[in-house]
Design a protein that fits this description.
- The protein is an alpha+beta fold and about 425 residues long.
- The chain folds into two domains: about 250 residues, Bira Bifunctional Protein, Domain 2 (BirA Bifunctional Protein, domain 2); about 80 residues, Rossmann fold.
- The protein contains 14 helices and 16 strands.
- The strands form three sheets. An eight-stranded mixed sheet has the order 1-5-6-11-10-9-7-8, with helices on both faces.
- α1 runs antiparallel to α5 and α1 crosses α11.
- The model has no long low-confidence stretch (mean pLDDT about 95).
- The structure holds histidyl-adenosine monophosphate.
- Histidyl-adenosine monophosphate (HAM) binds next to β6, β10, β11 and α11.
Length: about 425
């Protein structure tokens, strides 16, 4: 027998019964972003590899291990986009958007690709809704963006979400801080776990996540990057926080927050859903004031976020299971004898042209089977066509039946 194909590892099919929740996430995001003046942009699924190498950062896991990179027929190296920010910044420069009124606010959605170890909530192809505001340094931009993301998550009804907020300052502050942290850790090396000691030179920040008791004790007294921000960065961060406070947003200050992309400066945030287990990050972002310059543009500030559609869908599906919510019945299912199928199709077409949801049996079922099908597809009404051109309309919720004239069905259903 010929081998059956499956979707590649780490990818999945979205089946039709899984679409409504995803479509709602996309619709709510789109409405809220467009109401806030964000314009819709689409960029290609693949870009020059160098854009991500420079933009996302050579030292990140994404660039080092997770990119789907290939050569085209002309020998150019291309990469399936692992994230949106570098692409949106490229488009901003390519189309001269620095000449438009700033900040330029853009959003997009679509598939992204990272060669990660697949597990629940972590895929090799995943979907993001992404928003970027380019061209303003104002802390109001950071706050506004966080408020929009939070409002989307709240309107969707995701439960158990917390927002972690931090600031990274500038690359110079960060480099000086990492040196200080390394020196501090070395001064108390004997108290640290072997693992932390081994990674001290590569990534001393990891020590903040350690479970080891001795290390935890050392880290409780360690200096944090937040305490080392220079005056301008500290003021910027205070302003972001004050705006969030004024707008009633609850967040946790996280002095050790780090994210897997190199371009961040200043504000950094992450939304987590505690019900999701290990892959709990449902969205995150921050400010990237150096990115546009890194990819060949003039110094231009920017700020943005991305929401993970798949993870938000997982969270909402789990909640729906718990609540066992029933969806409302909708539309008409036309039930007809075999020789009445032509009439049924004509009627269904007429109803559809009037903007209604309508369906009929296409599998040669007996009348009883068609009634079952009407129930299964969630029809609000079943319309039973009789041979004598009469018809009975059955309310599938209450079971009530009444005679109707098929010729005036659109009017009857428009004013039931
Ligand atoms: P990120 O944190 O890498 O940020 O991704 C944002 C969200 O995408 C995550 O919180 C998560 O929900 C989802 N996500 C990421 N990787 C996967 C995966 N392998 N499987 C499923 N979901 C995933 C960025 O991508 C930045 N570009 C955000 C940004 C925009 N920063 C500034 N502007």
């Amino acid at each position: 027998m010929t081998e059956k194909f499956k979707a590649p590892r780490g990818t999945f099919d979205v089946l039709s019964d899984q679409q409504p929740v995803r479509e709602r996430i996309q619709a709510v995001s789109r409405r809220r972003l467009e109401a806030a003046g964000y314009g819709h942009i689409d960029t290609p699924i693949f870009e020059d590899t160098d854009l991500f190498a420079r933009g996302v950062g050579e030292s990140t896991d994404i660039v080092q291990k997770q990119m789907f990179t290939f050569e085209d027929q002309g020998g150019r190296s291309l990469t399936l986009r692992p994230e949106a920010t570098a692409s949106v910044c490229r488009a901003y420069l390519q189309h001269g958007m620095q000449k438009l009124a700033q900040p330029v606010k853009l959003w997009m959605e679509g598939p992204f690709f990272r060669h990660e170890r697949p597990q629940a909530g972590r895929y090799r192809q995943f979907t993001q809704v992404d928003a970027e505001a380019i061209g303003s340094e104002s802390p109001l931009v950071d706050a506004e963006m966080i408020l929009i993301a939070s409002d989307i998550i709240t309107e969707l009804g995701v439960e158990g979400v917390r927002l972690r907020l931090g600031s990274l300052g500038t690359p110079a502050t960060r480099a000086a801080y990492l040196e200080e942290l390394r020196d501090y850790l070395r001064s108390r090396e004997a108290e640290l776990s072997d693992e932390v000691r081994g990674r001290l030179d590569v990534n001393p920040l990891r020590a903040f996540d350690a479970e080891h008791e001795g290390t935890r004790h050392v880290m409780d007294e360690a200096p944090t990057l937040l305490e080392r921000l220079d005056e301008a960065d500290a003021e910027h961060f205070d302003a972001v926080r004050q705006t969030l406070d004024r707008n009633g947003l609850v967040y946790e200050l996280d002095p050790t927050l780090v994210r897997g992309l190199d371009y961040y400066t200043r504000t950094l945030f992450e939304f987590e859903c505690e019900r999701l287990g290990a892959q709990s990050g449902i969205g995150g972002g921050g400010r990237y004031d150096g990115l546009i310059e890194l990819i060949g543009g003039p110094p231009t500030p920017g700020c943005g976020w991305a929401l993970g559609v798949d993870r938000i869908a997982l969270a909402l599906e789990a909640q729906e299971d718990a609540a066992e919510g029933e969806t409302a019945r909708e539309g008409v299912f036309v039930v007809a004898e075999e020789d009445g199928r032509e009439a049924a199709l004509a009627l269904v077409t007429e109803l559809r042209r009037a903007g209604m949801t309508a369906d009929l049996d296409l599998a040669g079922r007996a009348t009883k089977g068609q009634m079952k099908q009407a129930d299964r597809v969630g029809a609000r009404y079943a319309l039973i066509l009789a041979r004598d051109a009469k018809a009975t309309l059955r309310d599938m919720d209450s079971g009530e039946e009444r005679e109707v004239d098929p010729a005036t069905l659109v009017e009857t259903l428009s004013s039931p």
